[in-house]
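Board notes (copied after class):
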Amino acid sequence: MVEEEVEVDVEINTTADKFFLFARRSQNVVTATRYIQGCDLLEGEWDKVGSIILWKLVFDGEPRVSKDRIETVDMEKNVIQWRVLEGPLKKEYKSFLKTVKVSPKQGGSGSVVKWNMKYERIDEKVAHPKRLLQFFVEVIKEVDRYLLSEE
């Protein structure tokens, strides 16, 4: 199989810097959304490349875990990447890389969160992760609402 990707842009009302600062500290996200139940640092430091994080989340009403390694933290471009190391996704995908990039909205207030997933399916029977993409849209919207309520 070949590497494929899906992505979505989500317009939010929070500024790019505020959203990125919050999101890059993975442990913060737990307080802002019902979909993320926990986040444990297994190795390294919270927002440092090479660190390993165990996410505890609720996807389609089911508890799930994902053990991820932080691949990139780019403070200038507001980009974070996580590579999935273990969890249900590794049963269906040979590789799975999640990227979030937060940019100021052109010609207006707020910002745009681009969520991208690059993956290689184990075979063509495995579905593209469109439901997972929608899951992250909901997480982004909940974090945005949380951050706006904090102002």
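Comment from the instructor: Residues 130-149 form the longest helix (20 residues). The radius of gyration is 15 Å.
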